[in-house]
């Protein structure tokens, strides 16, 4: 590394470290919602990416409304749009479960097909409602640009924001799942549906709320990702592969597994990408992933899934 | 106006034959054509159309084939809107050879086999006289064999990697050298650039373009390529690549990232503190269409090299922008490819009128004479070269916060060279 001072190399090292952590938080936020649905209910939700797009479009709508009617409110609307994205995506998830998914619990392959169909319908609806072109929400100034930690180190503010948001959402999910009585019911249903029903848990209601929660979190992710990526009818399909990779590698039913898996994939990807080309980095990561899954088909952290 | 009953007809193999059926057809056409000739002054369908295209005495049918659904709908919407506008304007002027143009529109659905199937339908079933369509190179490659087999005529609007010239295609966008070389010359001269970092999406167009760019940088400009990187299509994470670029400290970042990745790329550049204040960036994949998704604030000060920008200040363009907005809404934006698509129907009109016929072979022959030009093109002036590509100018635009570009450089008219020597 001729021609570089130690300061420079140190700065690049620090920024590269942050981009790894930042990728980790992005992957985790993408995967949390899917992990809840896939892990707790055994439903493979192919429309997960589209629920993220719902969150992104909610942000876009609120940004245009704010710009037109309350320009003074522009610096703050983004926080509200995250809440709104959660509610709207959640309600749509609730309806999707009620209309479509609940009829198919005994047929896992059919849910795959049905949710894939749902994703196509949603994509085309975005196209009809918002147009085929990509849109860009006006982001508040405090979310743009970089925070100059030192003369040479620039830390992306949107990266910090997504990191913080992922922390909050993850803690929230853990609290709900492991500390609340609702979480207890969810876990009971996961382990033994018939028995849970027998002791008076309304398992159908539990399913519906779990699905809505997963979709709501996808909505939050979608809203947050407007700061780092695109908002268009096919935005969701950009995320879905990575999301599945994280969840499957982590072990379907384990939230800890999802975190560990997001962390290892993010670090591998980001470090490799620095030294070799992006395409090769992806190939190599996927290759190792496939190899590990061949020997450990249940993923990193296996636990019981409702059969 | 004459109806020659005994003109020998050339068969497709080139032998001269006399077909009893065509004689019969000509006989039947006499009364109609005589009436038309005396009362309206029109040339009968049998005369301007000897190959069975969908041409009547009052109408000629053309096809529009773009993706209205799927991933590519983002890009192809503008192109098909511009083609419809051009056709509407031609019809208002009285049509072509006295015939109104009727459109059959098909949806390629961002799927290459669908493009091939729909183009076959347009050519075989609808017998259209010309097709305006396709956007990606992949879709063009998929329909090319169909057009060559059925002898159709395609007007293709996108700037593309070159290395192609088909009898059945007129390319209204720029081929790679028309876009790339002048932009690099400009940045080397104006910004004293010596070192370049090349980054693109991982498929044929960016890779071919970068190959040409690298040859030009190293052999002609005497500069140095300090990095070359391709991101998988749809990838949205640029953190590591941005750090790599930081490490190499290039004078210029030369970018050809497309689609959703393009949005992520510029948003993350800005977030990483790499703005036009510190870094020169030249891209060949951002038009006004893409800016809608990326956001002007993330592009401010960076440069695009294209042949057309919506902000171009000339009378042709002002009229075009006004007409486009009137037809498609005042918020519409017009990118490079949209303008190139708009040229298609006009070039076809000029060629048909020159040939005096809708026959594909005659229209192609007229197009190849090298004297078809449009002085009314929004980009200024274009001329059709015998190699089926357009002479056009390259322009460098600097993006502003409002999503429009300021044209800071304009080249001379550049001759199209789809097979550039020394660059392959």
TrEMBL record, chain A:
InterPro entries: ABC_transp_permease (IPR001851), ABC_UrtB_bac (IPR017779), BCAA_transport_permease (IPR052157)
Top-level taxon in the UniProt lineage: Bacteria
Annotated localization: Cell inner membrane
One Pfam family hit: BPD_transp_2
Keyword Electron transport annotated: no
Keyword Metal-binding: no
Membrane topology: Multi-pass membrane protein
CDD domains, alphabetized: TM_PBP1_LivH_like
Transmembrane stretches, start-end: 12-39, 51-70, 76-100, 157-178, 211-232, 238-262, 274-295
Keywords: Amino-acid transport, Cell membrane, Membrane, Transmembrane, Transmembrane helix, Transport
NCBIfam families: urea_trans_UrtB
Similarity section: Belongs to the binding-protein-dependent transport system permease family. LivHM subfamily.
Protein name: Urea ABC transporter permease subunit UrtB
Higher taxonomy: Bacteria, Pseudomonadati, Pseudomonadota, Gammaproteobacteria, Oceanospirillales
Automatic annotation (TrEMBL), chain B:
Domain of life: Bacteria
InterPro entries associated with the record: ABC_urea-bd_UrtA (IPR017777), Peripla_BP_I (IPR028082)
Endpoints of the signal sequence: none
SUPFAM superfamilies noted in UniProt: Periplasmic binding protein-like I
Pfam families: Peripla_BP_5
Listed NCBIfam families: urea_ABC_UrtA (TIGR03407)
The protein's name: Urea ABC transporter substrate-binding protein
Organism: Marinomonas colpomeniae
Lineage, top ranks: Bacteria, Pseudomonadati, Pseudomonadota, Gammaproteobacteria, Oceanospirillales
């Amino acid at each position: 590394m001729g021609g570089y001072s130690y300061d420079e190399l140190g700065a690049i090292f620090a920024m590269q470290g942050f981009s790894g952590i930042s990728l980790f938080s992005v992957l985790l936020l993408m995967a949390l919602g899917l992990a809840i649905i896939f892990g707790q209910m055994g439903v493979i939700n192919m429309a997960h990416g589209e629920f993220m797009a719902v969150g992104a479009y909610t942000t876009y709508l609120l940004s245009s409304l704010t710009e037109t009617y309350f320009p003074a409110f522009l610096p703050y609307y983004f926080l509200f749009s995250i809440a709104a994205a959660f509610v709207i995506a959640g309600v749509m998830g609730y309806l999707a479960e009620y209309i479509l998914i609940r009829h198919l619990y005994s047929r896992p392959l059919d849910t795959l097909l049905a949710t894939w169909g749902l994703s196509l319908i949603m994509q085309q609806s975005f196209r009809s409602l918002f147009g085929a072109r990509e849109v860009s929400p006006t982001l508040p100034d405090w979310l743009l640009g970089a925070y100059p930690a030192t003369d040479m180190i620039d830390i992306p503010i949107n990266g910090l924001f997504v990191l913080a948001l992922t922390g909050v959402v993850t803690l929230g999910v853990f609290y709900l799942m492991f500390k609340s009585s609702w979480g207890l019911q969810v876990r009971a249903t996961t382990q033994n549906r018939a028995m849970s029903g027998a002791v008076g848990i309304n398992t159908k209601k539990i399913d519906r709320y779990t699905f809505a929660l997963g979709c709501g979190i996808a909505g939050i992710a979608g809203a947050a990702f407007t700061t780092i990526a695109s908002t268009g009818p096919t935005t969701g399909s950009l995320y879905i592969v990575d999301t599945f990779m994280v969840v499957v590698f982590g072990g379907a039913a384990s939230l800890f597994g999802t975190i560990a898996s997001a962390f290892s994939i993010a670090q591998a990807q980001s470090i490799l990408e620095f030294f070799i080309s992006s395409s090769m980095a992806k190939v190599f990561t996927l290759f190792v992933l496939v190899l590990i899954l061949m020997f450990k088909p249940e993923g990193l952290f296996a636990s019981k899934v409702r059969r | 106006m004459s109806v020659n009953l005994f003109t020998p007809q050339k068969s497709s193999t080139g032998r001269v034959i006399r077909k009893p059926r065509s004689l019969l057809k000509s006989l039947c056409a006499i009364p109609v054509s005589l009436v038309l000739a005396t009362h309206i002054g029109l040339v009968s369908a049998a005369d301007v159309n000897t190959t069975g295209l969908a041409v009547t005495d009052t109408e000629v049918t053309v096809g529009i084939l773009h993706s209205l659904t799927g991933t590519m709908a983002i890009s192809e919407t503008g192109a098909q809107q511009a083609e419809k506008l051009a056709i509407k304007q031609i019809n208002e002027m009285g049509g072509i050879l006295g015939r109104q143009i009727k459109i059959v529109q098909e949806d390629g659905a961002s799927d290459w086999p669908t493009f091939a199937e729909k183009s076959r339908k347009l050519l075989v079933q609808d017998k259209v006289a010309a097709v305006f369509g396709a956007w990606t190179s992949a879709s063009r490659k998929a329909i090319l064999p169909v057009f060559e087999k059925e002898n159709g005529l395609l007007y293709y609007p996108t700037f593309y990697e070159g290395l192609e010239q088909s009898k059945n295609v007129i390319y209204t966008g720029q081929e790679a050298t028309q876009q790339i070389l002048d932009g690099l010359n400009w940045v080397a001269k104006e910004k004293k650039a010596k070192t370049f970092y090349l980054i693109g999406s991982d498929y044929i167009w960016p890779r071919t373009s970068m190959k040409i760019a690298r040859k030009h940088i190293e052999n002609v400009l005497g500069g140095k390529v300090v990095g070359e990187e391709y991101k998988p299509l749809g990838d949205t994470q640029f953190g590591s690549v941005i750090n790599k670029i930081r490490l190499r400290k290039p004078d210029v970042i030369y970018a050809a990232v497309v689609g959703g990745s393009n949005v992520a790329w510029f948003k993350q550049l800005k977030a990483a503190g790499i703005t036009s204040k510190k870094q020169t960036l030249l891209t060949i994949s951002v038009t006004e269409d893409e800016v809608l998704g990326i956001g002007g604030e993330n592009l401010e000060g960076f440069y695009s090299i294209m042949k057309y920008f919506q902000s171009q200040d000339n009378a042709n363009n002002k009229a075009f922008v006004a007409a486009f907005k009137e037809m498609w809404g005042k918020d519409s934006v017009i990118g490079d490819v949209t303008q190139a698509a708009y040229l298609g129907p006009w070039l076809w009109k000029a060629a048909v009128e020159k040939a005096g016929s809708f026959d594909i072979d005659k229209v192609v022959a007229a197009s190849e004479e090298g004297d078809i030009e449009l002085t009314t093109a929004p980009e200024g002036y274009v001329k059709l070269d015998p190699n089926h590509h357009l002479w056009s100018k390259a322009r460098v635009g600097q993006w502003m916060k409002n999503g429009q570009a300021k044209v800071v450089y304009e080249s001379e008219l550049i001759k199209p060279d789809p097979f550039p020597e020394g660059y392959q």
